[in-house]
Amino acid sequence: MKTSGFLNDRKMRRMAVTSFEASLRQRCSNCSLREICLPLGLDAEELGKLDDLVKRRRRVFAGQHLFRAGDPLQSLAAVRAGFFKIYEVSAGGHEQITAFPMEGELMGLDAISTDAHRGNAVALEDSEVCEIPFTRLEALLSDLPRLQHQFHKLLSGAIASDHGLMMVLGTMTAELKVAAFLLNLSDRLGARGQPCAIIHLPMSREEIGNYLGLKLETVSRMFSRLRDDGLIATEGRKTEILEHKALRDLCLQGPLRA
Amino acid sequence: MKTSGFLNDRKMRRMAVTSFEASLRQRCSNCSLREICLPLGLDAEELGKLDDLVKRRRRVFAGQHLFRAGDPLQSLAAVRAGFFKIYEVSAGGHEQITAFPMEGELMGLDAISTDAHRGNAVALEDSEVCEIPFTRLEALLSDLPRLQHQFHKLLSGAIASDHGLMMVLGTMTAELKVAAFLLNLSDRLGARGQPCAIIHLPMSREEIGNYLGLKLETVSRMFSRLRDDGLIATEGRKTEILEHKALRDLCLQGPLRA
DNA sequence: CGGAAGATTGAAGAAACTCAATTTGTGTGG
DNA sequence: CCACACAAATTGAGTTTCTTCAATCTTCCG
């Protein structure tokens, strides 16, 4: 579970490249994610007001925490690039990963209820976030009904996707859980216009298992089974979905197999 | 899983009684739940505006649906009295109960993202809800920053409690799941000033199992085990928590037992 | 009181876990 | 660039936990 935040040459080089690209899209107004993120549905004037609020392009290197449980809620964070994991620690000391946020997804929404973060956010790869000071955001929402509505949609969508995970955890066998996990990632990548057949998983088998309520060995076995059945191809953490439809059918029929 | 919505004499008598009581507390302003529900933190004037919005005391008899998946989102509903279950049906036809809302809790929050309900809400006993037309509520939020903030807290709290269930589903054994379930109910009753040592469970073993990712026989066995260990006493669906601290310790140490 | 649904308990089976050995992948330093 | 060391992933064998199937008991209503 531990990851080093050490900055080696490779990481520095990689960040230099992304920072050059990023200079071309400094504002929500022309951000490629504006159709799936908070700005969805805003006009130019409204976008401008939101833009004034957002602190863009804070970098978080692989293994670094963006926030920790107990931290007071200052800002929500939208993933601009990269991949995160959010995990919570129970009173008994058990860790549970509750989400793997990717581009355009907000982190920290569960902190509003107590003004303090409940989850811990760690970058799984070198990443970039946009920070949105929450108090100022709430003030702006009152002025911009469309932004308010979109914010509510994102909050509501977070609940809905949590329910999706509950469905997975509560009703599925190990094989189906892994299949559903891969499809979920693929769908979310597809929704962002990214290639969704070949997925580079930024998380370990252990992290997948933790998320799905399985042990890492079981996850590995299920990857192997799906591979042997010809549904996927694996090459380390790179996973290709060969039979998208068959994989989806597998999830649909669920543990109902005759 | 099926329950009859048949209205027998007993039900009619019961409702007559509650309706008499209810006439004394017709508005949010003097509702006993205002400290845990949407009105928390509002002053008299603000309360009045919210009051004008809310359609109070819609009755839902045991077994009846308040809304179903696919229904367009008209109103959010706050439980005024009674107990509900919310279940979702996956594409593959599997049911998963995602919540057992009780007094002061909002239902339908996950519908905002798609303007249609995803869950199905069924009353587990004769119940009463306050309906809050969502479009009008959102308009009011812009005028009442405190109401807006409280609404966000409730949305955020829903996410947080969903994460709590994920933790249960993902990390706990059958025995701990049942223990955690009982404690959760007890805590929520306690937070409402109700007796929390003796709980009358309005849901069946099957429904508990569905919620916790267990089969009904396993749930029954775990009730028996907790009873044999002296932590609880059971008398049908009436359950008494005898050793509150021991039960909590059990959940804390989790599957870490030596 | 009688029937049906819900709950409990037992015994056998399946699924996932634990422990352990091996292989593969990754990053570091020679 | 290669070899080494360490972490991650895979695979196997045996065990535990939960489920399945089945019988019995209880509770709730009519």
Query: Can you tell me the CATH superfamily of the largest domain in chain A?
Result: Jelly Rolls
Spell the H/E element sequence of chain A.
HHEEEEEEEEHHHEHHEEH
Mean pLDDT of chain A: 90
Uncertain residue ranges of chain A: 1-17
CATH class of the largest domain in chain A: Mainly Beta
Biggest interface and which pair forms it?
A-B, 51 and 51 residues
**Strand residue content of chain A:** 15-25%
Say what oligomer this is.
homodimer
> What is the tally of beta strands of chain A?
11
Structure report:
The structure is a homodimer of 258-residue chains. The relative contact order of chain A is 0.12. Chain A has 8 helices and 11 strands. With 258 residues, the first copy, chain A, is an alpha+beta fold. In chain A, the strands form 3 sheets. Chain A has a 4-stranded antiparallel β-sheet. Mean pLDDT of chain A is 90; it is low at 1-17. The first copy, chain A, folds into 2 domains: 2-145, Jelly Rolls; 172-253, Arc Repressor Mutant, subunit A (Orthogonal Bundle). Chains A and B meet through helix 3, helix 4, helix 6 and helix 8 of A and helix 3, helix 4, helix 6 and helix 8 of B. The structure holds a DNA duplex (30 and 30 nucleotides).
